[in-house]
Design goal:
InterPro entries: MCP_chemotaxis (IPR051310)
Order of helices and strands: HH
Number of strands: 0
Distance between the termini: 49 Å
Radius of gyration: 28 Å
Keywords: Chemotaxis
Low-confidence stretches: none
Structural class: mainly alpha
Strand content: under 5%
Organism: Ricinus communis
Oligomer: single chain
Shape: flat
Helix content: 40-55%
GO biological process, one term: chemotaxis
Protein name: Methyl-accepting chemotaxis protein
């Protein structure tokens, strides 16, 4: 049980350090992005601001390879097969 507690504490410390590093990187990114200016009225939008348009993504049915395509390739030649 002591080993599990130590592992949990170690994982917790590692996650805290990672979170701090990510926070620092996010701040640096915000400072770098502050360089870019937008026209009035074109401010930040949230990702959930607009729902996706209906039919915006097209999905295609999966294709299957027919026997004609397999016949063109040909069956594998077992003469080259080496048994080990």
């Amino acid at each position: 049980m002591s080993q599990t507690t130590q592992q949990n504490a170690s994982s917790s410390e590692e996650l805290a350090a990672t979170a701090e590093e990510m926070s620092s990187q996010a701040e640096q990114l915000q400072q770098a992005m502050a360089f870019f200016k937008l026209d009035a009225g074109h401010g930040l939008r949230s990702a959930a601001g607009k729902p996706p348009k209906a039919g915006a993504t097209k999905r295609h049915a999966p294709r299957t390879v027919g026997t004609l395509a397999l016949a063109a390739v040909g069956a594998p030649d077992e003469a080259d097969f080496a048994r080990f």
